[in-house]
Give the backbone structure.
Amino acid sequence: MFNRIILIASILAIVCGVFAKSDTHRSKELTSDVFVNLYVQLSVAAEQYLDDSTRLVRVQDSIFNDFDVSRDSFDKFRAKMDNQPEKWNDLWEKIVKKLEEIDKKHRKSEIQQKSAPKSKSKNK
């Protein structure tokens, strides 16, 4: 699970770096909580659209719009946290916890779907 999170985080960092846009018209200040939630949503999107980078960028743009945050402010906040390892550690723990909760819900949902009785077709 931890390797998967590291992979997603790495992919997210690369994609954000490659497709970074300078959206200076948005000026919403990023808080730690907003960053954590945004990072989690971007990580989930990165996993879902791993094989379709064009669609991933569109989904990421949509997520940034939903949070009213630019890629540039996201990258600046992340860079600021890189210079404050003690704060970054706290954020990372929150991110991992949220991702694990999402993963747990997803697995529980899959188990319920597999164990649900299948309706039998009456096509004779």
About this structure: The two ends are 46 Å apart (CA to CA). Confidence is low (pLDDT under 50) at residues 21-27.
